[in-house]
């Protein structure tokens, strides 16, 4: 065939749809979209539509109130800081539970999951009792001039408490599956323990750490029960956004409450997208 004939010959149509290896894909995808639509998309659509009863100006006015801005700032700032603080703490705990055998390891491993099982109100009461000015830790801290309960610092500690298991449980399986031969090879090539961790172990753990960070952040933004007791709920100082939503609901201001919820949804979604993008990028570099 000449070159001209090869160019003029019709090209085979590209097959965009490849057959699935596993059977039942249309049924599984149909049920998946149905459940997501009913349980996720529909409620979120209602949340997105409800604030606009106030009109664009009303939504803007509701979200730019100084009290609302202060509550949103406190919720997202403390959730982000608590998530970042949990990354090294969770990594250290996961490393200890995975790499070392010691008496009582099973008990320590079970204690990690305690914030999962403990009712959030109970956690809030316990933290308040400990860090109150008359508490076991609050009293000596108060003598040093550090006030924890009824301040943003108390909110931060509560979010660290409830977010820690997410980081530990995200990192622990990766550490367990990490090939020890790779680390041993780095040692035989002359790498120091710090270089081995920084250049061999940490790149593998980074996607799991980011996953734990995003989970802890998402839990912290919407946390209510464990925070309201230790926060003190003082407007403009220690009032969180979920509490402000409850207050507006009690005042029958449903559109105003939905407006705050919409703002939290948009900011949370953007933050989680950024973390997921970073996670995918680090995972790609790890595979490369």
Automatic annotation (TrEMBL):
Species in which this protein is naturally found: Phenylobacterium zucineum (strain HLK1)
Domain ABC transmembrane type-1: residue ranges: 72-273
Record keywords, A-Z: Membrane, Sulfate transport, Transmembrane, Transmembrane helix, Transport
Official protein name in the record: Sulfate transport system permease protein CysT
Quaternary state and interactors: The complex is composed of two ATP-binding proteins (CysA), two transmembrane proteins (CysT and CysW) and a solute-binding protein (CysP).
InterPro entries: CysT_permease, MetI-like, MetI-like_sf, Sulph_transpt2
PANTHER family: SULFATE TRANSPORT SYSTEM PERMEASE PROTEIN, SULFATE TRANSPORT SYSTEM PERMEASE PROTEIN CYST
Family named by the database record: Belongs to the binding-protein-dependent transport system permease family. CysTW subfamily.
This protein's record includes keyword Ribosomal protein: no
Residues spanning the signal sequence: none
MF GO annotations: ABC-type sulfate transporter activity
Alphabetical list of Pfam families matching this protein: BPD_transp_1
Membrane topology of the entry: Multi-pass membrane protein
Transmembrane segments: 21-49, 69-98, 110-132, 144-168, 224-247, 254-275
Cellular component GO terms, alphabetical: plasma membrane
Subcellular localization: Cell membrane
Function field: Part of the ABC transporter complex (TC 3.A.1.6.1) involved in sulfate/thiosulfate import.
């Amino acid at each position: 065939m000449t070159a001209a004939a090869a160019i003029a010959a019709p090209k085979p149509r590209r097959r965009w749809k490849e057959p699935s290896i596993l059977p039942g894909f249309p049924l599984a995808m149909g049920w998946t979209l149905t459940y997501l639509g009913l349980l996720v998309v529909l409620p979120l659509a209602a949340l997105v539509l409800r604030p606009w009863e106030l009109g664009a100006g009303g939504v803007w006015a509701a979200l730019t109130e100084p009290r609302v801005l202060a509550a949103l700032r406190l919720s997202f700032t403390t959730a982000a800081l608590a998530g970042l603080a949990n990354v090294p703490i969770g990594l250290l705990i996961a490393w200890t539970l995975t790499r070392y055998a010691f008496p009582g390891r099973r008990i320590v491993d079970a204690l990690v999951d305690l914030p999962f099982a403990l009712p959030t109100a109970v956690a809030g009461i316990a933290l308040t009792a400990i860090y109150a000015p008359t508490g076991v830790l609050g009293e000596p801290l108060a003598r040093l001039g550090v006030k924890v309960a009824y301040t943003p610092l108390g909110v931060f500690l509560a979010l660290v408490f409830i977010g820690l298991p997410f980081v530990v449980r995200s990192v622990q399986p990766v550490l367990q599956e990490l090939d020890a031969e790779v680390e041993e090879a780095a040692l035989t090539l002359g790498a120091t323990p710090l270089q081995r961790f920084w250049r061999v172990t940490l790149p593998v753990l980074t996607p799991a750490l980011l996953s734990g960070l995003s989970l802890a952040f998402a839990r912290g933004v919407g946390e209510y029960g464990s925070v309201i007791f230790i926060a003190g709920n003082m407007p403009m100082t220690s009032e969180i956004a979920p509490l402000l939503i409850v207050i507006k609901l009690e005042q029958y201001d449903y559109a105003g409450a939905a407006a705050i919820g919409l703002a939290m949804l948009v900011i949370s979604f953007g933050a989680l997208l950024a973390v997921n993008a970073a996670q995918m990028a680090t995972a790609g570099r790890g595979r490369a």
